[in-house]
Amino acid sequence: MKLIFEKSAPGRRSQLLDRCDVEQFELPEKFRRAEKAPLPQLSEIDVDRHYSELNTRVHGVNTSFYPLGSCTMKYNPRVNEEIAALPGFTGIHPLAPEYSVQGCKEVIATAKKYLCEISGMDDMTFQPAAGAHGEFTGVMLIKQYHQSRGDQKRCKIIVPDSAHGTNPATAAMCGFEVVNIASAPDGCVDIEALKAALGDDTAGLMLTNPNPVGLFDENILEITRLVHEAGGLCYYDGANLNAVMGVVRPGDMGFDCTHMNLHKTFSTPHGGGGPGAGAVGCKAFLAPFLPKSALMDEEGHIQVRSFEGNFLIVVRALAYLLTLGKEGVPEASTNAVLNANYLMHQIKGTFEPAFDRICMHEFVLDLGAFKKETGVSALDVAKTLIDYGMHPPTMYFPLIVHEALMLEPTETESKDTLDWAAEVFRKVYELAHQDPEYMHEAPHHAQIGRPDEVLAARKPVVRFRPAE
Amino acid sequence: MNFPAELKYSKDHEWVMMDGGVAVIGITDFAQDALGDVVFVNLPQEGDEVGMGEAFGDVESVKAVSDLNSPVSGTVCAVNEAALDSPESLNSDPYGTWLIKVQDLGDTEELMDAEAYKAFCETVA
Fold first, then answer.
1. Does B1 touch chain A (CB under 8 A)?
2. What are the structural domains, with CATH classification, of chain A?
């Protein structure tokens, strides 16, 4: 398939925009580009066909099963899109007078109220544009809090070794020293290791619960108590909130602030690079440090993004919350947990779970013994699944399980789909014993076979340059 | 899997060769096999201090980024620039591709001989 740049023909064009009805304005010389941008020139039908063809070559949640662990690839109801497309939401300007955007302000206030209720927090900002951005904002709240008290020695953030990679990265970006603590054998926090790491230099702890292997840490109240006792604060990474929303609240587990991935848990599109929304909630004592919109004429206000962040994502999340209602929200979570446990049990006996106990919304398969026996790796299995029309699970994460495959079916899949998926896993398991060589070369029927990951990492080509 | 008898090994899967008062450090065959194809290596600079059990750099493979933990404390006296330029040699020749040389040695972790390390690898595999 040709790139859109290669389909370009000089002078071909589309009439997509209305005739400009404001006077043209010449930019000053210093703002003008020296040479013309090499943009593709195509007619509308060329563009339509190009993207229609691309659409047949991708795998999305709208195509088939997408059990990408830790990513919560649930179905995004169409009604969210319809509501977000209403002209009252799309036709506004951030600098419009307040009286003219009262409906939008109500959306923000209502979404804030519901999400505070779900997270057990007192206040919230929608500015952060993604999960890691939310983490950054949340950990900066912790930093501001300690600084406001003149507590300068708190320079360390504790992160378990099973954590999502963004946690230590966030702590480092915020200027903290990262203290990694080893997990207990079940992937939960090792209380003794935590005690040893705590001290008067502890700024806080970053934690996901359920943890990154899909298990609920039953010691959570003890964990947050110990951190508070040492004078630190507790940050809840909301990555796995889909397992517990409306059932357990991070605020009640003892966390002081959290981010929620609206683009995962609250069914707004994700996986294509955005836009996302990492709403950050906090307890009342941290609220003074929350970022504020630039329009608020307050001294020393902090912004992490312009205005109210990705507002239309908040609209979609609110549409989802209002569709589900108070009973539907916890039901979605309990179904996510039920689906994960059902699939785990259907696969068990072939591929084995890394932790043989009831899981939350996702589970990890340990293919260590399987690889020893067959020579087939977790990567080979993941690639083979593509040939069966399934998106591969997350591979080689969490790091504490070596040949890991992590599955998160989500609540939006039916029992039929889960039965089909389990059948595919059983077939792949048998295939590995019959024809491992075939699996080393998989996928055989996909648009792209095995990309050269090493070359892609070392010498990435990220920009198209037209031939001279 | 290769376990040269003349080397010492750490539980973090590094090999150490004592060359007079200098410790030459690299990653083991077992480590490179577990990591998969290595794409980047970050190493300290000459003159940097390293502490026993502390990270002195990291290796990035197609699977993950892993810390390189130093089995000794001391001062880095040489860094293998060739390994930075062609990290694939860590996969093809792990024992021929040293990473750093450390002098002014202070603490040294209790290291295993080839036989003990081989047995250790079997327990963690």
1. no
2. 1-57 (no CATH), 79-321 (3.40.640.10), 333-456 (3.90.1150.10)
Helix or strand or coil: residue A205? strand
Tell me if chain A has a CB within 8 Å of the CB of B34.
Answer: yes
Residues of B within 8 A of A453 (CB-CB) are 37, 39, 62
Give chain A's mean pLDDT. Answer: 93
Contact state of B63 with A368 under an 8 Å Cβ cutoff: no
Domain-located, residue B81:
yes
Q: Chain A: residue nearest B84 by CA?
A: A458
Quote ipTM for the complex: 0.76
Q: What is the pTM of this model?
A: 0.89
**Structural domains in chain B (count):** 1
Amino acid at A63: T
Name every residue whose Cβ is closer than 8 Å to that of residue A172 and which is 6 or more positions away in sequence. A178
CA distances from A269 to A7, A73, A75, A118, B88 (A): 29, 9, 9, 20, 38
> Does the CB of A454 have a partner CB in chain B at under 8 Å?
yes
Q: Which domain holds residue B13?
A: 8-107
pLDDT in tens, chain B (125 residues): 889 999 999 999 999 999 889 999 999 999 999 888 999 999 999 999 999 988 999 999 988 888 899 999 999 999 999 999 999 999 999 999 999 999 999 988 899 999 999 999 988 76
Which residues on A lie below 8 Å from B40 (Cβ)? 457-458
Asked if the structure places residue B22 within a domain, the reply is: yes
CATH of the domain at B17: 2.40.50.100
Phi, psi of A181 (to 5 degrees): -115, 140
Closest CA of chain B from A148, distance in Å: 32
Set of chain A residues whose Cβ sits within 8 Å of the Cβ of B125: 368, 372
Calpha distance B123→B103 (Å, rounded): 32
Which B-chain residues 68-97 have CB contacts (< 8 A) with chain A? 88
Which residues 6+ apart lie within 8 Å of B96 measured at CB?
B89
CA distance B110 to chain A (A): 20
At residue A184, what are phi and psi to the nearest 5 degrees?
-70, 165
Q: What is the DSSP letter of A38?
A: -
Of B40, B64, B88, the CB nearest to A396: B64
B-chain CB neighbours of A395 within 8 Å are 63
